[in-house]
Design brief:
316 residues, seven-stranded parallel β-sheet, NAD binding, Rossmann fold
C-alpha cells in the first residue's frame, strides 16, 4: 500500500534536495507545501488525505482540535526532538505516532552573532549605501571591552558566551536557577536580572518559551536597559513584550534590536516591526542551515521507512 506523505511549511522548497525521498520507492507518495496555513479548517481540509505529515519545527501547530479531525493520519514527524506545538496526549489518544529527528546545536548561536555584528557595525545600512553609490556614514561600536549580558546560560547561551569572550567582552549571565559557580565554569559572572539589564551593552536571550518566561522582558525591563544598549532575541518572540519593544525602539529607550523570532510567524506584511527603527530582522533563520536541513529531512525519511517496516522510530 502506498502512503501519502505531506511536508509542511517548506518555505524555500528545498526538502526534496536534502533527503533521498526516492529511497522509499513506491511505498510513499510525496507532496510538499511551500506556503503556510493558519486557518484550522483550511489546514484540516489540506491534510485530510495524508497518512504521514512532516512538520517543520513549530511552524504549524497540531492541537487536539486538528488531530481529532485527521482520522487518516498515522505518523506525525517533527524536525527536532521537541515540539511544544504538538498535543502529544491527543496524538496518543488518536493512535498517531509522533517522532522526531536530530539537529545541529550551533546554528542559532551563530546567527545570534550575525545579528549582533550587523547592529553594532551598521552592516545592512552601510551595504545598502555602498550598493547605491554612497560611502561611509556611520560609526560602529566596539565589542572588545564592552559587556555581553546572556539571559539563559544553557546549551545555546554558553556558545554565545564563549564567542563574546573571544571578542574580549565581559560576559555576565542570569537565569532563574543559575548558580555563581556554574557561570564561572563557563567564563561568565552570575548577576541579578536587574544588574544584567542595566549594565550590559548587548542583552541576548537564550531561554525556552514557557509560562515562566512569557513576557519576561516587558516595559519595565526595557526601560532599565541603557539607551545605548541592544537587545537580541533568537529564542521565541513572546519572551519579549512586542508592544513594549516597539515603543522602546520608537522612543529610544534602547539603541536597537536584532530579532529572529516574533509573536506571529510568518510576520504579517503590515506588522509595525517591519518599519521599526534601528532593527535587524531575520525570518526565524536560527536553525536554517544546510547541515541542519540534511538531518531534518534525511532522518524524516528514515523515520518513515522504519515506520512502514514496523521498526522503532525516534518517538518523542
Amino acid at each position: 500500500m502506498t502512503v501519502r506523505v505531506a511536508v509542511l511549511d517548506d518555505y524555500q522548497d528545498v526538502s526534496r534536495t536534502f533527503a533521498d525521498w526516492g529511497s522509499l520507492g513506491d511505498q510513499a507518495e510525496l507532496t510538499v507545501f511551500t506556503d503556510h496555513v493558519d486557518d484550522t479548517a483550511v489546514l484540516v481540509e489540506r491534510l485530510a488525505g495524508f497518512d504521514v505529515v512532516v512538520a517543520m519545527r513549530e511552524r504549524t501547530p497540531f492541537p487536539a482540535v486538528v488531530l481529532d479531525r485527521l482520522p487518516r493520519l498515522r505518523l506525525l514527524i517533527t524536525t527536532g526532538m521537541a515540539n511544544a506545538a504538538i498535543d502529544l496526549a491527543a496524538a496518543e489518544r488518536r493512535g498517531v505516532t509522533v517522532c522526531g529527528t536530530s539537529s545541529l546545536p550551533t546554528g542559532t548561536a551563530e546567527l545570534t552573532w550575525g545579528l549582533i555584528l550587523a547592529l553594532l557595525r551598521h552592516i545592512p545600512d552601510e551595504s545598502r549605501r555602498v550598493q547605491s553609490g554612497g560611502w561611509q556614514a556611520t560609526v560602529g561600536r566596539d565589542l572588545s571591552g564592552s559587556t555581553l549580558g546572556v539571559i539563559g546560560l544553557g546549551r545555546m547561551g554558553v556558545q554565545v558566551a564563549k564567542v563574546g569572550q573571544a571578542f574580549g567582552m565581559d560576559v555576565v549571565a542570569w537565569s532563574q536557577n543559575l548558580r555563581p559557580e556554574q557561570a564561572a565554569a563557563m567564563g561568565a559572572r552570575a548577576v541579578t536580572r536587574d544588574e544584567l539589564l542595566s549594565g550590559s551593552d548587548v542583552v541576548t536571550i537564550h531561554l525556552k518559551l514557557s509560562e515562566r518566561t512569557r513576557g519576561l522582558i516587558g516595559e519595565a525591563e526595557l526601560r532599565s536597559m541603557r539607551p545605548d544598549a541592544y537587545l537580541i532575541n533568537t529564542s521565541r518572540g513572546p519572551i519579549v513584550d512586542e508592544a513594549a519593544l516597539l515603543t522602546a525602539l520608537r522612543e529610544g529607550w534602547i539603541a536597537g534590536a536584532g530579532l529572529d523570532v516574533f509573536d506571529a510567524e510568518p510576520l504579517p506584511a503590515d506588522h509595525p516591526l517591519r518599519t521599526a527603527p534601528n532593527t535587524v530582522l531575520t525570518p526565524h533563520l536560527g536553525y536554517v542551515t544546510r547541515g541542519t536541513y540534511q538531518r531534518f529531512f534525511g532522518e524524516a525519511v528514515e523515520d518513515i521507512a522504519a515506520f512502514l517496516k514496523g521498526q522503532p522510530v525516534r518517538v518523542l
